[in-house]
Amino acid sequence: MESTEVAAYSKRVQITRMIVVVVLLIIWEVTARAGVMDVSWSSYPSQIFGQLSKWAMEGILWVHIGTTLNEMFWGFLLGSAMGIVAALINGRAQTLEKTLNPYILAIYSVPPVALAPLFILWFGLGVTGKIFLIASIVFFLVYLNTLAGVKEVDQDLIDSMRIMGADEKTIYTRVIIPNAGIWILTGLKQAVPKAITGAIAAEMMAAKSGMGYLIMESSSMLDIGGVLASLVVLLIVGLALTELVSRVERFLLRWKTA
User: Fold this and answer.
1) Which positions fall inside the ABC transmembrane type-1 domain (predicted)?
2) pTM value surpassing 0.90
3) Which of 10, 21, 128, 180 is the 20 to 30 A CA-CA neighbour of 64?
4) Rounded-to-integer distance, Cα 98 and Cα 94, Å
5) What's the CA gap between 95 and 11, in Å, rounded?
6) How many Å apart are CA 140 and CA 97, to the nearest integer?
């Protein structure tokens, strides 16, 4: 399939997706206003978007989004860096990997929501605990994917580089990291929605701002429209961040095959 055909197909898919969303919103709005659905528990699209407009004009929305994005950024950065470094080291040291991996997998099996109270107790109610919680979630996904990428590197290629006199630093920068790059990006893409989950879980337990706090505040007032409006924001943020990582991934794929 030529690039023009791929672009046309992609455009048709996007248009179809938009049509489906619009149709579902119209059905939701009509059924809610006709009394088929109980609006006290389901609200309706016009009310949700009206709530978003109100928050945006009052500036409340941007404050809460900014808080959550700040926590996510630093947590994502810290967790990604730690995951990549740990995987690059363990992937080349089999004894270390076999020693540590069972413990890493055991901790990974614990749900993030269960870890949130622990981080709050350790680091307090401020932003630090939330950042470390997000970092711990991101770490495992990036680590496991990067480790798989490192282990996929052809050992014969590494041996050939050694024969030509390459040191360990050169092997990492010229062979291992470039070949594991797609795996790293896959881990980052998988970590985006999990990072949002971690941030919201922490904010719902202990926070004075952030989208998780906004959800809890709306819920405490039985404001279903506010809760759904907050979820719409999180959906948009998640899609935008995932698309950003996907674009970087596609760029690197084109660069690698060029």
Assistant:
1) 65-245
2) no
3) 21
4) 6
5) 49
6) 14
